[in-house]
Amino acid sequence: MTGPLASALTQRSVLICVGSGGVGKTTVAASLALRGAALGRRSIVCTVDPAKRLANSLGLEELGNAETRIDDARLAAAGLGPRSPMFAMMLDMKRTWDELISKLAPKEKQERILSNRFYQSLSSALAGSQEYIAMEKLWQLHARSDYQLVVLDTPPTAHALDFLDAPNRLLDFLDNEAARWLLTPALAAGKLGLKLFNLGGSYVARQISKFTGVETLQQLADFMLAVSGMNEDFRERARQTRDLLASGSTAFVLVTGPTVERLDEAVHFHTLLRQNEMAVAAVVVNRVHEPVPDLWWREAAKLSPPLRGKVEKTLEELDVLASQDAIGLAKLAEACRPTALVLVPRFPLDVHDLPALWRTGGYLVGDAQLPAASS
Amino acid sequence: MLEKKRLLIVSGKGGVGKSTLAAAVALESARRGQRTLVCELNAKERVSMLLGRPEVGPEIGLLEENLWAVDIRPQEATREYALMVLKFESIYNAVFENRLVRTFLRFVPSLQEIVLLGKILYHLREQRPDGSWRFERIVVDGPATGHAVSFYGVPKVVLDTVPPGPLARESKVMLDLLTDEAITAAVLVALPEEMPVNETLELCQALRERVGVRPQAVVLNCFIPPRFGREDPSLLSLNRPLEQVAQSHLERERQSQAARERLCAGTGLPVFEVPRLFHPSFGRAAVEEISRRIARLEE
Q1: A250 CB neighbour count, 10 Å cutoff
Q2: What is the CATH code for B7-226+270-298?
Q3: CATH number of the domain enclosing A341
Q4: In a domain, A9, yes or no
């Protein structure tokens, strides 16, 4: 067991898998947690939206948001016996948000917040809010210190910046100078239902309301009023999350695929993480096609038609994919220097069960290696 | 199937080849002689890159005969929209160029979607001096699944929640265009894998029920056509690696078939297969090949 992820698994207590959607982030996260447990660390993987078969193999079918211990029998059936227990959970965004509000908001204000349209859009749609709540969950799991290793699988991100920026954006929202300045009459009045705020009194507000409608501004005022006073708690929480991300116990694992359209995103993400002084343990390149060994070609040539033609056609295609991937990998390695690349091959079948997770983990921790990785 | 539709919304999970499909559909449409505009939303301009053309940016640019492209970005679109509403640039500058106001507007729900969508639909209604459409066909390379429903659903949501006013008026016009079957059609892009198929089925239902946009076809990208017979791997059993090569290919053929069947049954729409292409580098040549393969979509 060697390489950057092997040491991250023993030395870090939080691993955050980031990357765009559809690259196998969840699989990598689950494999890491499984390997962590095998190494004797009590581990949990927190996933966002796992494929059904993967969720089933982890035993997550009905349990949803709850932290679930992977059944020993299930592990034994797969020929695995980790030294410490492994847990898994799915993250329910909306519920985590609601819990957060219930914890931070005074009783009498909770209902008003939970039913406000702005809160609803904040908790479900606002760019960055998913990322924010994933961080919140991470902080909770870490703070309870029930686990020695927390592996977080993050929501697919359209814009890399949303992720690191999430706590700040939330604070922006809650503590928006502009909103305060626009809505000052309402905030000062301290009560709603009276004259909310006098749009006539502000030239700027009047212009904006032409654009958004008056009601929208009133709802916003209502929300701001309800959450005012909670800002300090949010600020404190956001600061703690941010500290956790930057601390020595956390490392990021950037997951990507070898194809060109994925690479740009991965490089961009990597650059941002480094700019923000976050530790990047490794760039995991998933589903890499290996060049076809010469022996296979020689063997294929011995076959008789039509089977020979079918096999050779398939080998040709695999070679095209392998050469595409090789070009991508070289570019990626160059752009992400000095962060190491960890390659996971394209398996003949998709990774959906515990033995396959274990095999994936072998490549992650360096027990197995692709030829390309050693060059 | 799509021939008469003026607004084509290409939608699907991230990484399924949505931009490639949008480029291919637009290319085919332009080749048929329709003045075609392809719109990307605050993206990294994949379409112009795929077609081997320089970036066009937030202003509409000509890519080739009959084919224009634009990258619609929130800030520029907000400005254009605000100028239309407020009429005077000086007011816009005083109000909207204010840093504080800009931060604030970012948080008004749906506003960004409305201005992005508003710009697309504005170009849909634009006419030339002779009264013909400036663009006969607009292809939208829309946001990935998760955001697609909330994006195209915005006019309806706004109408349902916002009292009469400028936003509501705009939204009504948008909703009418989006839900007009004679004008608008969605094309869903899927991959022959479990998650993308699930998402496509959900997307199809949500577009129908929550948005009112009619999906007209599914494009199943990276399809693996049949090659090996069921008994072929066993004929290779003396050679373990080659047996696995055949077995793996056969499994992907099965997945492709299964995906096709699930999509057919789940959406009730025609499913068009685009086989996985093995080009050494993915660019114009690949897009051209795909555009030929989906030419039937138009008929």
Answers
A1: 22
A2: 3.40.50.300
A3: 3.40.50.300
A4: yes
A213–B contact, CB cutoff 8 A: yes
* Alpha-carbon dihedral A64, A66, A72, A78, rounded to 10 degrees: 30
Distance from C-alpha of B255 to C-alpha of B249, rounded to nearest angstrom: 10
Is residue A309 a part of any domain in this protein?
yes
Measured in angstroms, the CA of B187 and the nearest CA of chain A are apart by 20
Does A264 reside within a domain? yes
Burial class (CB in 10 A: 0-12, 13-18, 19+), A319: middle
- Please tell me if residue A212 touches chain B, with a CB cutoff of 8 Å: yes
What does the alpha-carbon distance between residue A28 and residue A31 come to, in Å, rounded to a whole number? 5
**A residues 310-349 closer than 8 Å to B (CB):** 310-311, 313-318, 320-321, 323-324, 327, 348-349
Residues in chain B: 299
Neighbouring residues of A270: CB distance < 8 A, sequence distance ≥ 6: A254, A280, A283, A335, A336, A339
Q: Hey, are the CB atoms on B108 and A216 less than 8 Å from each other?
A: yes
Residues A163/B48/B260/B4 CA torsion (nearest 10 deg): 120
Task: DSSP for B198-212, please give it.
Answer: HHHHHHHHHIIIII-
pLDDT tens, position by position, A5-61: 999 999 999 999 988 777 888 889 999 999 999 999 999 998 876 666 677 777 666
Helix (H) or strand (E) holding A172: helix A160-174
Q: Which domain holds residue A348?
A: 4-105+130-161+244-374
Name residue B71's beta-bridge partners: B40
From the list B21, B18, B1, the residue with the least C-alpha distance to B296 is B1
Per-residue pLDDT in tens (0 to 9) along chain B, 299 residues: 777 899 999 988 777 888 889 999 999 999 999 999 999 886 666 788 888 888 888 889 999 999 999 988 877 887 777 776 666 666 666 655 665 566 556 555 566 777 788 888 889 988 999 999 999 999 999 776 556 777 788 787 777 766 666 667 778 888 898 899 899 999 999 999 887 888 899 889 988 988 888 899 999 999 999 999 888 888 887 788 888 889 889 999 999 999 999 999 999 999 999 999 887 777 888 899 899 888 888 77
Contact (CB<8Å) A22/B196: yes
Q: Which residue of B has its CA nearest to A55?
A: B195
A119 inside domain: no
Distance in angstroms (rounded) separating the CA atoms of residues B40 and B7: 13
| CB A151, CB A29: distance < 8 Å | yes
Number of domains in chain A: 1
